[in-house]
Structures are given as C-alpha cells and as structure tokens.
Amino acid sequence: MKLVSNVHNNSTVNNILTIDVEDWFHILELPSEIPVKDWIKLENRVLKNTLSLLNLLSRYNAKATFFVLGWVAQYCPDLIREIEKQGHEIATHGYSHRLIRDLTPKEFAQDVSLSLEYLSRATSKPILGYRAPGFSLTEDCLWALDILLELGLSYDASVFPLKRNHGGYKNFTGEGGFINTPKGRQILEVPVTCNNFLGKKLYVLGGGYFRISPYWVIASGIKQLNQQGKPAMIYLHPREFDPLQPRLEMSKVRSFMSYVNLHTTETKLEKLLSNFRFNTIKNIWQLSSVPKLTELQAA
Ligand SMILES: [Zn+2]
User: Fold this and answer.
1) Rounded to the nearest whole angstrom, what is the distance from the C-alpha of residue 99 to the centroid of ligand 1?
2) Quick one: which of 187, 206, 212 has its CA closest to 64?
3) Which of 192, 199, 220, 276 sits at 20 to 30 Å (Cα–Cα) from 15?
4) Is residue 26 within 8 Å of residue 72, measured between CB atoms?
5) What Rg value do the Cα atoms of the chain yield, rounded?
6) Cβ distance 18 to 282 under 8 Å?
7) Cα of 169 to ligand 1 centre, how many Å?
8) Cα(133) to centroid(ligand 1), Å
9) Which residue, among 92, 104, 201, has the nearest Cα to 156 in the 3D structure?
10) Domain ranges of the chain
C-alpha cells in the first residue's frame, strides 16, 4: 500500500458504507450473556445514535446500507421508516444477534425470518441483503447462504476474508460477485474489502480497526482500492459514535477493541464523507436487476 499523508481523492468510484444497527449491549460473546428478553430493560441508545448518524450522512448527501437487527426494528419501527425515508437501504442483521455457528439451520432460518417480519412492517421496499453478526459466515456454515435465498434475499455481506474472533473466512478469495452455494445455486456475496500492505492483507476499514487507525491510513486504504477501480466497504455501528455509552464487563483485549477511540469515529467518517463518495450496496450493484431465486429456478 502506498501511504500518503495528504489524501484528497477526486475519484469517481462509489464506495460502500454499511452500518450495523444494534445497541451498546449487543457486543458479542460477553462473559455473561444478556438474554434477549432483558434487552428491553436496558437503556436505548441506538435511536439517538442512529438519528445523529443520519444527520451527518444527509449533510454530505451520502447513502448507506443499514443492516438492522430485527429486535431494533421491533422496538424502533419509526427509526427504520426514517432511515428509508432518507434514501438509504434497509437490510437485515438477523433478529437476536447470535453467531451462525451457534445456530442450527432451522434456528438460523427462524432468526432471519423473524427479522424480516419486523423489518417488512416498517419498510415499503423489499429487503435484499443480510449480514451475519460478527461476520460469522465461515466455510463450516455455508448452508446459511441457501437459507438466505430460500427466504427471498438476493445477497450476503457476511464474509470477512481474514481470521477474526467470531470466525472470519480467511480462505475466501476474490472480490464481490456471485458464489456457489452448497445446493448448487448462486448468491451475490459482497465481502468486506481489505488492503495489501507489503504483500499482506491488512484491514483498517471498519469497527475497532477503523477507530485504531489514523485517518490518513484509512483514506489511503480507500484510495488504493479506488485506484484499481474497486469500491471500498466501510462498516460501523451507531454505538461507535457514542463515547458516553455504558461500559460492559469483558476481557481487557475485547474491552480495548470495543471502546478504543470512540471519540474519533464521527470526525473520521465526516472527513471521509467530504473526500470520498459513498452509496448503498443495492445501488452500487444495481440490484434491481438481480434475479430472485424463483426466477432462477424458472429459467
Ligand atoms: Zn452486529
């Protein structure tokens, strides 16, 4: 990666901005898990954090794909309506924020289906995409892709092509495009984008990695992809814009990655919005033309 300190990008490449809409207590694999039935008793911060993020995006006329947790859609349906009203894409992050590896295929289908039920009550447009909690789509649970197609979804954005805590799909090769499912169908996969640094894959474009990295490193990473004509994908959560969120008990390493540099997220994103173009997965992949499973079968 060629690192430059003064990044002003005139690229016409549209990058992908994705937001996983969940609250401060949805951090994965805590030492003592908070049951779903108790989530409603906790302070809701996702509403105001997402609304302030929407304000930021509207100032720069940037559009994003919001992977909304079904539970959030159940309790904040007006927020989903507002996201859609402002021209963003609504997609699903499942209902109960559980890793795919902890679910049977039947439980996974029920979880995604429940999320679609709550999301579709608040949206007028079809939901096309899914992202797994913790990017937990690995080589061991590709069966999930067939279930997504069976539920009427068109794309998956759950591949993190490096090793990570909750899985990661480090042997995933290639970039976004159609991939084969175990049942011989095809689904559009839109993976997280990595950079090359001294011949190694490096990730700086989302979550804790985004908060740790200085702005110029992130901007250089986007520029490197754009110079090759490729869109970069950023992923963030509303809680990452909230330095005052309550702190949950977890290991020192997890705590560092979850809470480091929360005060820098908004400034970094605002700078990116002024220097790069961002749009939704649906718009960038022109998904109105993606055939649905039923059409594929009929063809
Ligand atoms: Zn999540």
Assistant:
1) 9
2) 206
3) 199
4) no
5) 18
6) no
7) 17
8) 4
9) 92
10) 14-298
d(CA 163, CA 172): 10
- Smallest CA-to-CA distance from 46 within 26, 16, 22, 19 is with 22
CB 99 within 8 A of CB 132: yes
User: Which residue has tokens 């067939």?
Assistant: 146
List, as one string, the DSSP characters of 102-132: GS-HHHHHHHHHHHHHHHHHH-SSPP-EE--
Q: Please state the separation of Cα 245 from the chain's center in Å.
A: 20
pLDDT-based confidence at residue 200 (cuts at 50, 70, 90)? confident
Mean pLDDT of 69-81: 98
Mean pLDDT of 111-121: 98
User: What is the CATH number that goes with domain 14-298?
Assistant: 3.20.20.370
Q: In angstroms, what is the span from residue 97 Cα to ligand 1's centroid?
A: 6
Query: Which is more confidently placed, 190 or 293?
Result: 190
CA of 272 relative to ligand 1 center, distance in Å: 22
The model's pLDDT over 229-253, given as tens digits with 9 standing for 90+, comes to: 999 999 999 999 999 999 999 999 8
Tell me how crowded residue 275 is: count the other CB atoms within 10 A of its CB. 17
Above 60 in pLDDT, residue 142? yes
List the structure tokens of 22: 């969940």
- Both tokens of 71, joined, read 């539970």
d(CA 62, CA 102): 35
> pTM here?
0.92
